[in-house]
């Protein structure tokens, strides 16, 4: 079997949902795959299916990314395998309920997966690809990064971390030839709610996007060179206005005296 000219895409959380859909779409584009998740049997089944259907090379790397030893195993593969040209940093878990009612140990596990693992793999990819002068990183965040008051605080904070990390990686690695994207889905129909004993039925159907539509939109944004892709946002001018408003704060975020409005003597 010939090696893909596009290289290999390493996809985390690839056993189902967004990750499995990315694997399918990337295989159809001609990428070879390195699939990462805890469930080895589902990974193997997906790898066999995509190999047979698309004629690509699909490998599996079982790993529990809530365990730091397993994260380092994936990181090492990412750093030494020169065939890897794309990281889809997707693995993550959602909340069980409202912040004041959730299990704090579970929330800490969420941070391990949604933040610690994403951070380590994202930075490892950025360092590795920057040295090569090429490569791509897709980090899966969420629109709740922008609306913290309307969702579980720990979960929205993890996704805000992913958004900020992506923007910072792009500032450093973008000029060195690394293509970077953060994807901010809204509600997406996957297993994430089933796993925590919840349901999409409590949301209006007009708010819940099919996972294939979400990934197809995200890849369209990737093709268009978007740094931030919000699949459901009708007019990107709204995001540009948000970014401009944030940038406008810049000149006044750090001075050698408090603002006069606080009435501090000598200000």
From TrEMBL:
Q: What GO biological process terms does the UniProt entry carry, in alphabetical order?
A: fatty acid elongation
Name the protein family: Belongs to the short-chain dehydrogenases/reductases (SDR) family.
Return the protein name: SDR family oxidoreductase
Q: Which InterPro entries match?
A: NAD(P)-bd_dom_sf, SDR_fam
The family database entries (PANTHER family) matched by this protein are listed as:
HYDROXYSTEROID DEHYDROGENASE-LIKE PROTEIN 1, VERY-LONG-CHAIN 3-OXOOACYL-COA REDUCTASE
- CDD domains hit by this protein: SDR_c
This protein's source sits in the domain of life called: Bacteria
Q: What is the lineage of its organism?
A: Bacteria, Pseudomonadati, Pseudomonadota, Alphaproteobacteria, Hyphomicrobiales
UniProt keyword terms in alphabetical order? NADP, Oxidoreductase
- State any single GO MF term: oxidoreductase activity
């Amino acid at each position: 079997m010939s090696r893909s000219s596009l290289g290999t895409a390493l996809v985390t959380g690839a056993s189902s949902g967004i990750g499995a859909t990315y694997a399918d779409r990337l295989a159809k584009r001609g990428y070879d795959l390195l699939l990462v998740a805890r469930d080895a049997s589902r990974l193997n089944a997906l790898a066999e299916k995509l190999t047979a259907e698309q004629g690509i090379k699909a490998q599996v790397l079982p790993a529990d990314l809530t365990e730091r030893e397993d994260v380092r195993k994936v990181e090492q593969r990412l750093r030494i395998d020169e065939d890897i040209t794309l990281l889809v940093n997707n693995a993550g878990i959602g909340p069980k309920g409202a912040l004041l009612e959730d299990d704090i140990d579970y929330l800490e596990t969420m941070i391990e997966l949604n933040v610690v693992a994403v951070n380590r793999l994202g930075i490892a990819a950025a360092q590795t690809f920057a040295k090569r002068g090429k490569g791509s990183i897709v980090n899966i965040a969420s629109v709740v990064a922008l609306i913290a008051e309307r969702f579980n605080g720990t979960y929205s904070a993890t996704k805000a971390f992913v958004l900020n990390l992506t923007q910072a990686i792009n500032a450093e690695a973008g000029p060195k030839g690394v293509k970077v994207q953060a994807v901010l889905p809204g509600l997406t129909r996957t297993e994430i709610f089933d796993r925590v004993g919840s349901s999409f039925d409590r949301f209006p159907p007009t708010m819940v996007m099919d996972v294939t539509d979400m990934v197809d939109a995200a890849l369209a944004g990737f093709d268009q060179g978007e740094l931030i892709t919000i699949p459901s946002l009708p007019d990107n001018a709204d995001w540009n206005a948000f970014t401009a408003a944030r940038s406008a704060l810049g000149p006044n975020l750090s001075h050698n005296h408090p603002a006069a409005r606080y009435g501090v003597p000598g200000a």
